[in-house]
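Morning F.,

Quick status update on the modeling queue. The single chain you submitted on Monday has been processed. Sequence for confirmation:
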Amino acid sequence: MRTVGEGVDAGWAGRRVIASVGFTGGYAEQAATTTDHLVPVPDGLGLREAAALAHDGVTAAALMQATAPGPGERVLILGASGGMGTLLVQMTHAAGAHVVAVARGDRKTALVKELGADDVIDGAEAEWVEQARAALEAAGGPADVVLDGVGGAIGAAAFALTADGGRFSAHGAPTGGFAPIDPQEAARRGITLRGIGDVQLTDAEYVRLAGHALGEAAAGRLRPVIGHVYPLEQAAEAHTAIEERSLLGKVLLSARGE
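Structure tokens below.
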């Protein structure tokens, strides 16, 4: 039975939606939230694709808003083959920027190239920093924007590739920590630093950006990449796959036993 609470518009019953329910850190088959947190899923967009955008699509849109890459600018993206990285590649390409993307291995670099990266660097190569620098210089100079979805020493190495006066977003930490960037060095070079705290959104901002991401996907302008769907009872296996970086794009859990 599909029902809504007392005083709620009955038109919400049975609608396909995503929502931010106000907490993180667990999984559930059902969740309760208020209607002002709900974002309708457009017709023609699958629920799995919507789920893949519920977090990464919103955060990617917020990062684009915060760093504002524009036409002709050079953008370096670390972790470009992940759930959010694949979206950032598409978004920065659509913004008219020259995209230099870093991913690891043939499968991941091929995917990133397919999604619109102008240059793709294999992060498994010992000389990846030099290769990225050469690609950026060939495009006109250092990176105007660095979108660091990896963190740690890799993110720190990418800081040296940022143009004076550029923007550096240290929002990723799958390596165990965010990139250790010296704020005084950034200030000396006129580099604007962003972090994960800059994309912590209000409920209204979440609804707006989620609606935008879903709309772009429904229109065919944004493609969420889903690497694998695990049943809910295999959540531990899903986490292992994420930690091993063995899959492309986003990993999902399904509570439907599919």
